[in-house]
Design a protein that fits this description.
- The protein has about 525 residues and is an alpha+beta fold.
- The chain folds into two domains: about 20-135, Immunoglobulin-like; about 145-155 and about 170-190 and about 215-225 and about 235-535, Metallo-dependent phosphatases (Purple Acid Phosphatase, chain A, domain 2), CATH 3.60.21.
- The protein contains eight helices and 28 strands.
- The protein has helices spanning about 160-175, 195-205, 225-230, 275-290, 315-325, 325-330, 450-455, 525-535, and strands at about 20, 45-50, 55-65, 70-75, 90, 95, 105-110, 120-125, 130, 135, 145-150, 185, 215, 255-260, 265, 300-305, 335-340, 345-350, 350-355, 355, 370, 375-380, 405, 410-415, 415-420, 425-430, 435-445, 475-485.
- The strands form six sheets. It has a seven-stranded mixed beta sheet with strand order 13-12-11-26-27-28-21, with no helix packed on it. The protein has a seven-stranded mixed beta sheet with strand order 14-15-16-17-22-18-25, covered by helices on one side. Strands 1, 2, 3, 6 and 7 form a five-stranded mixed beta sheet that branches.
Length: about 525
């Protein structure tokens, strides 16, 4: 991690401790209050965060004062020509000293939200209010989609404005294509330098981060100070010593979890890995699943450092350690999907059990797979901002003899069904359905601006096949797969009973196929399973 640059004071920002107040709206019409506009406070450090469950959101911000502040919240249709009524719900802020840049940071938990409701909010007090922002809840049960973003790392190209423009464009493109996406999930490395608030300003510049809940993940560029956890207050967070990278006094960190519409999300600080930290992470995941997994259809893990990295971090010593520590535990615990960042390139693993390919007949780039008992799919997201890309590397057994080539596609690492780098911004869409998860890697840009690493010449080529082919259109697919999760015996947290695997027609050429209803065969016996797999191959 590069050393942090000096920060600067901000006028408005985030929280260090949590509060949760009940939200209950009475019936009847709202009464408009007498309201005199005052100069707005600085608002580009306000961020809407994920809550512990569907009926919660967390707001975090910076502030220049530790005097009384609050969030006012109403159903949007209660506003009277933009004015808040006197009976708006009020949530007191918890305010703490900003240990990085002076001033203060604050947060409030909005609790008791109702489903299928548009809400509007503002932050401040009688001395001044932020602009009004809005968000919408969806149904609290059933299917939903969420979006996963890899390493914006604002500032890493050397041009802060270009990095911010690429990041804002990916948010705009992805949410225009998926306006009902319910969560924005981070792969970590929001910024280049953890304690440089100009980087955070650029990262938080888009109002989309005040309209959709951001589920933060800490990356290696987000440590070195407290800015990360001052900008993002996360629910159910364990900030005890094993989950920090170094000193609790200077570094952000912690593991946390939340539930959303039948999915148990567990987020790990993978910066902490040595001296028993991986064992502590596994113990944390085990405890959370033991307590809450029985109520979850799926378990999704999120952390920064991709253990099946296809690019420059493939054989880092810390990743070699995580490849030994994590996979068997995740299979035994019934984890369904693991989302990772750090490598600024895209990969999607085969269905892996205990770190090995669960079904030898699964073909590279298959668009339809069956999870099977203990099966886990690992996804690494490419850069969402275009600030930095890492080129794919060939498997190198001299550096790690246990991370060699895929016999079916020797240019790929053995674990990965798909590896891709085009020097084009992308994001990952995950569709959650009752009996399947659908994962797509989608282009959010082309070789044209905003694409800072290419614009600045940091990368000399752009497009598929190392620039030999033209880049696909915005919205086109790099990869997609349907992960069938329910076999004849159903899906549970004891290994997710299922079976089999289908071989889709997706090649490793960087182009996807619209095949959300690909074939799925599930065997009732091992004999039938073997016959089916033979027929499929």
């Amino acid at each position: 991690m590069k050393p942090s640059r000096s920060g600067r004071n901000l006028a408005f920002g985030i929280a260090t401790v949590g509060v949760s107040l009940a939200l209950a709206f009475g019936n009847g019409s709202a009464t408009a209050a007498t309201w005199t506009p005052t100069p707005p406070v600085k608002a580009n450090t306000i961020v809407l965060g994920v809550g512990a469950q569907e009926s919660q959101r967390v707001l975090s911000w910076y502030t220049s004062t530790n005097t009384d502040q609050r969030v006012e919240l109403v159903p949007t249709n209660w506003l009277n020509h933009g004015k808040f009524p006197t009976n708006a719900k009020k949530f007191a802020a918890v305010i703490g000293s900003n240990s990085v840049n002076g001033g203060f940071n604050a947060h409030a938990t909005l609790d008791g939200l109702q489903q299928n409701t548009a809400y509007s909010y503002r932050i401040g007090n009688s001395d001044g209010w932020s602009p009004t922002y809005s968000f919408k809840t969806q149904s609290f049960k059933g299917d939903f989609d969420f979006l996963f973003y890899g390493d914006p790392q604002i500032g890493s190209s050397g041009d802060l404005a270009k990095d911010g423009a690429g990041w804002a464009d990916t948010l705009n493109v992805s949410l225009a294509a998926n306006p009902k996406a319910e969560l924005l999930v981070s792969g970590g490395d929001q910024v280049e330098s953890a304690n440089t608030e100009a980087d955070w300003d650029a990262f938080l510049g888009s109002d989309k981060l005040r309209q959709y809940p951001w589920a933060a993940t800490i990356g290696n560029h987000d440590v070195g100070g407290k800015s990360y956890e001052q900008h993002f207050w996360t629910p159910n967070t364990d900030r005890s010593t094993p989950f920090y990278n170094g000193s609790q006094n200077t570094n952000s960190g912690g593991d946390y979890w939340y539930t959303y519409k039948g999915v148990l999300f567990i987020d790990l600080n993978s910066n902490a890995y040595a001296n028993g930290a991986d064992e502590a992470h596994i113990a944390y995941v085990t405890d959370v699943i033991k307590k809450h997994g029985k109520d979850a259809k799926y378990t999704v893990l999120v952390y920064h450092h991709s253990i099946y990295s296809p690019a420059s971090h493939a054989n880092d010593g810390d990743n070699q350690l995580r490849r030994k520590d994590f996979p068997t535990a995740f299979s035994n615990l019934g984890v369904d999907l693991v989302l990772q960042g750090h490598d600024h390139s895209y990969s999607r693993s085969y269905v892996l059990k205990n770190g090995q390919k669960a079904n030898p007949a699964e073909q590279p780039g298959a668009t339809s797979v069956v999870q099977g008992p203990g099966g886990v799919v690992y996804v690494t997201a490419n850069s969402a901002s275009g600030s930095k890309y890492y080129d794919l590397t060939d498997p190198d057994v001299t550096k790690d003899p246990n991370y060699g080539p895929d016999p079916l596609n020797p240019t790929n690492h053995y674990a990965n069904s798909v590896e891709n780098q085009e020097h084009v911004r992308t994001y990952v869409k995950v569709e959650v359905r009752d009996d399947k998860l659908m994962v797509e890697n989608v282009r959010s840009g082309t070789c044209a601006a905003p694409n800072a690493a290419v614009e600045r010449g940091n990368d000399k080529w752009c497009g598929p096949d190392e620039g030999a082919s033209p880049a696909g259109k915005v919205g086109s697919l790099v990869d997609q797969v349907v992960i069938h999760t329910k076999g004849d015996n159903g899906h549970g947290n004891d290994g997710h009973n299922g079976g089999g695997s289908s071989n889709g027609g997706h090649g490793n050429d960087g182009h996807g196929h619209d095949d959300h209803d690909g074939p799925c065969w599930v065997s009732q016996t091992l004999g039938k399973l073997g016959s089916t797999l033979t027929a499929l191959s």
